[in-house]
Amino acid sequence: MSIHPRRHLISTLCALLAPGLAGASAQVPTPGERGPQIQAAAQAIGQAVREVQRLPGAFPAVSAVVVHGEETPLLLARGKLNAGHARTADANSRFYIASQTKSFVGLLAVELDAQGVLPLSTTLAEVWPGLRLPSPAEPADISLADLLAHQAPLRTDTLNLLSAYVRELPAADYPALLAEHTQAREPGFRYANLGYLIYGAALEARTGAAWQTQLQQQVLQPLQLRYVHARSSEVAQEALAWNHQWDGQHWLTTPPKPDALMHAAGGLYASSADMARWLRANLRLRSPSGRPSRTSFERAQRPVVEANLSDREFVCDGYSLGWYACGYRGHRVLMHPGSYRGAVSVSLLLPDLGVGLSFAVNSDSAIEGFALELMKAFIGLAHGDDSELARLRQAVDAYPGRLARLIESRREAVASARADPSWGGWAWRPTREELQAYVGEFESERLGRMTVRLGSDGLEARLGAMRLQLTPAREGLFGASGSEVEAAEAFEYEAEALRWRDHQFKRVSL
After folding, report:
1. What SS3 class is residue 46?
2. Quick check: bond before 421 cis, omega within 30?
3. At a CB cut-off of 8 Å and minimum separation 6, what does 19 contact?
4. Would you state the pLDDT for residue 30?
5. Among candidates 189, 112, 105, 183, which has minimal Cα distance to 146?
6. What is the structure's pLDDT at 34?
7. Residue 295: phi, psi to the nearest 5?
8. Max Cα separation, the chain?
9. Which of 63, 38, 49, 36 lies closest to 358, judged by CA?
10. pLDDT tens digits for 202-218?
11. Strand 154-155 vs strand 183-184: parallel, antiparallel, or unpaired?
């Protein structure tokens, strides 16, 4: 794999991360040497997770997994997959793992490179001759490896919104989408979804097969991951975790992501049992079937670019093709988090110990901060530092305050937005007959077709998979929000058009 030397590459990381970057040269202790220590660490993590889950508003369901060699000291899958129903999680329930998808796609990419199917040195100009990009970005200078290492000097808001919340972006549309809806940025590492979105489209353009199909054939089937899915429609609904947000008293639920929103930067559901298999394969650098190869695992895990993600304790200053290379108190870690509205997850590998941790919940209730402390405590405990028990205790004790602050900040944001004088005091009280004038189909060149309909709860706007409730403010102006915990945004009607987020939608005559 070659990456252009202009992309601020690194040959080594700082001394914290330098020993055995790829993990292949590390002398991993056998499970027997560390077994009791890892067992104790896993038990402490499981106990902390259970304790937090008992708190109102934490998370309805959780998946927590620890692997060590061939052993699985912790496989915790419990709670309600949907807070409004009785279905409970088990080892085969699927949780949405969001951006952790990138580590799977990175492994796919290096395997296809090794097979000669799609070399990572391939440039965007070779994929799409005639592609136009915003200057000074040049298609001939951007390789697939650059995309997967977050090095492409491009950025976008439009494609992020569309792919994450609205609709599928067909691979055939990418030349036009990139020409119209990306902007140039300064070169260097910048974590974003765009590179993986483009890679997925480029893969289909060159092979004729969707990234989901290639991932199934080249990674999931060979690794015997039967309960990892790139299409939610493949899974019985009762086996899928719904996403949740806490409003301070009740759960607000969101259905599982539809296939149209399952993209190469964040589009996988996975079970606890299969996350254990995934962690184990990455630690052993081998597959039960022999594919992907050991070399592919090593290349996917090897840092190729400088990153800058640090809280002064947990330092991530390298990125591979789908994993952050990090250090914590001198210990080497590979890690990738994932988050989406109503879901948070993370996986980490400790290659020197042959130990891995996966954690996923179906809520976004101040979980990121708790998960970070959970990771730090686990790394320390796995290495025999019992002082980390105090950190774990503090993380559990601090969680109610974290959650209370999140709820309060959301309430303040909603109240602050609502108090803006531009809303006219929310004094408009239209009848249902008057609201009929605002119903219709509207089209945006940038975002596509929006439908406004009148339901039992008033006006609702639908933009692909996105749903917005419209609350009357003053004549012709509505407050649009996706849920009760989101601040209202202006949704204003003009002559035969409407405007939302600086996008104009023109009324369509039917």
Report:
1. helix
2. no
3. 26, 332
4. 55
5. 189
6. 83
7. -60, -40
8. 75
9. 63
10. 999 999 999 999 999 99
11. antiparallel
Q: Which residues, 6 or more positions from 380, have their beta carbon under 8 angstroms from its beta carbon? A: 328, 329, 331, 387, 388, 391
H or E stretch including 36?
Answer: helix 31-53
Q: Pull the structure tokens for residue 116.
A: 């000669």
Tell me, what's the pLDDT at 21? 32
Give the sheet arrangement for strand 314-319, strand by strand.
Answer: 71-79, 61-68, 355-361, 343-350, 331-340, 324-328, 314-319, 305-310
Lookup: tokens for 275:
């996350």
Q: How far apart are the first and last CA of the chain?
A: 52
Rounded CA separation 395/506 (Å): 50
Give the type of residue at 148: L
Spatial contact of 246 and 365, defined as CB atoms under 8 Å apart:
yes
What does the alpha-carbon distance between residue 217 and residue 108 come to, in Å, rounded to a whole number? 10
In three-state secondary structure terms, 284 is: helix
pLDDT at 13: 29
Check: CB of residue 181 under 8 Å from CB of residue 254.
no
Query: Are the CB atoms for 338 and 15 separated by under 8 Å?
Result: no
For residue 465, give the 3-state DSSP assignment. Answer: coil
Low-confidence ranges of the chain (pLDDT < 70): 1-32, 510
The string of DSSP codes covering 86-150 is: --B--TT-EEE-GGGHHHHHHHHHHHHHHHTSS-TT-BHHHHSTT---STT--GGG-BHHHHHTT
